[in-house]
Write a structure and sequence with these properties.
The complex is a heterodimer of chains A (204) and B (120).
Chain A (H helix, E strand, L loop, with lengths): L1 H29 L3 E12 L3 H5 L3 E11 L3 E7 L1 H12 L13 H26 L3 E3 L3 E6 H9 L8 E11 L2 E11 L3 H9 L7
Helix pairs in contact in A: 1-4, 3-4
Chain B lengths: L3 E5 L3 H11 L4 E6 L2 H11 L3 E5 L7 H11 L5 E6 L3 H10 L3 E5 L3 H13 L1
Parallel strand pairs in B: 1-2, 1-3, 3-4, 4-5
Helix pairs in contact in B: 2-3, 3-4
Classes of the chains: A alpha+beta (204), B alpha/beta (120).
Chain lengths: 204, 120
């Protein structure tokens, strides 16, 4: 039990530092006041994702990261939250009509947010552990949660490995937008992460 | 004579963001969404300077830069790279890029780097 608590503390630390970095990147790019907080961190089986996010329609922004640790990072949020977030970013940019819920500019803005948050998290992990990590451009998905999880995680959903949830809130233009960041290292890679924690002082 | 600038980025949002920064001081003559489009558009529009994203579909920004510079050794290309992509910056400079800015970028830094490359 104590071991599990320590692991969650370690992951929470990484989440907090990642959020701090993301705030810096987002404020810089948008020239707006941005805040981001990690309210809680949990770790559970990948099969529990639909229980956490519900079975309804959801927006997923996902990307693969590769290097000394490999895996998938997903940002999951409700369609309403995704619309609020993209509208806040688009501001006075020229926008277009669309028959779909999300037009191309809204998708592009959402992907860029994911890109920045992923970059922030990846940078923190790479710097903390002195490892090499890169990530692919994120993809945008809008579908029922089980379909989107299958698409985003592919074969990984069949392996039953663990997923780390960071329950997060982004505050932008005085709007609170709740979302989940899910970090799913490939099989065996989560243990590599915990082994790396043994060699750093994450309280410093 | 207004300075003609071309924006190359696969992200519609990033293109809009860059355009918003650049239009105050330059004339944005074209926007390309991948390296292949960028090379064709460069030949057609002959801009004074290009902002070039690195990671793009079909043809990446480094390959596109090398094609552009092969056709015009005096071409001025400023790479827009994500932080932590130092290796890619080195490759881009080898391919002929004259400068770079890190994404996420701040407007004053983008303008400063572009002006510095133009006046070099």
């Amino acid at each position: 039990m104590e071991g599990e608590v320590n692991k969650l503390m370690q992951l929470k630390y990484m989440g907090d530092v990642g959020a701090k970095q993301a705030i810096e990147f987002l404020s810089m790019m948008l020239d707006m006041d941005v805040d981001m907080k990690i309210a809680a961190v949990n770790m559970s089986s990948i099969h529990s994702i639909p229980e956490v996010v519900g079975s309804g329609e959801i927006v997923a922004l996902y990307t693969r990261f590769n290097g000394d640790i490999n895996g998938t990072m997903l940002l999951l949020l409700t369609p309403d939250s995704a619309l609020k977030l993209s509208s806040a970013l688009i501001g006075d940019f020229p926008d277009e009509e669309s028959e779909d819920l999300f037009n191309d500019m809204q998708k592009s803005a959402s992907v860029e947010i994911c890109n920045i948050i992923t970059s922030a998290f990846i940078d923190v992990w790479a710097n903390t552990f002195s490892i090499e990590l890169t990530h692919n451009p994120p993809e945008f998905g809008y579908d029922y949660s089980d379909a989107i999880i299958d698409k985003a995680l592919g074969d990984a959903t069949k392996t039953g490995e663990f997923v780390v949830y960071f329950n997060s809130t982004l505050n932008i233009i005085n709007m609170d937008i709740n979302f989940n960041i899910m970090l799913m290292p490939d099989p065996g890679n989560l243990q590599t992460v915990f082994d790396m924690f043994e060699n750093i002082d994450y309280h410093a | 004579m207004p300075i003609k600038i071309m924006i190359v980025d696969d992200s519609q949002f990033m293109r809009a963001l860059l355009k918003k920064i650049l239009v105050a001081e330059f004339t944005v003559v074209g926007e390309a969404t991948n390296g292949i489009e960028a090379v064709k558009m460069y030949e057609k529009l002959n801009p004074d300077i290009v902002t070039m994203d690195v990671v793009m579909p079909k043809m990446d920004g480094i390959t596109a830069t090398s094609h552009i510079v092969k056709r015009n050794p005096e071409a001025k290309v400023v790479m827009c790279t994500s932080v932590g992509q130092e290796e890619k910056i080195k490759k881009a400079i080898s391919a002929g890029a004259k400068g770079y800015v890190n994404k996420p970028f701040q407007a004053p830094k983008v303008l400063q780097e572009i002006k510095s490359v133009i006046s070099a």
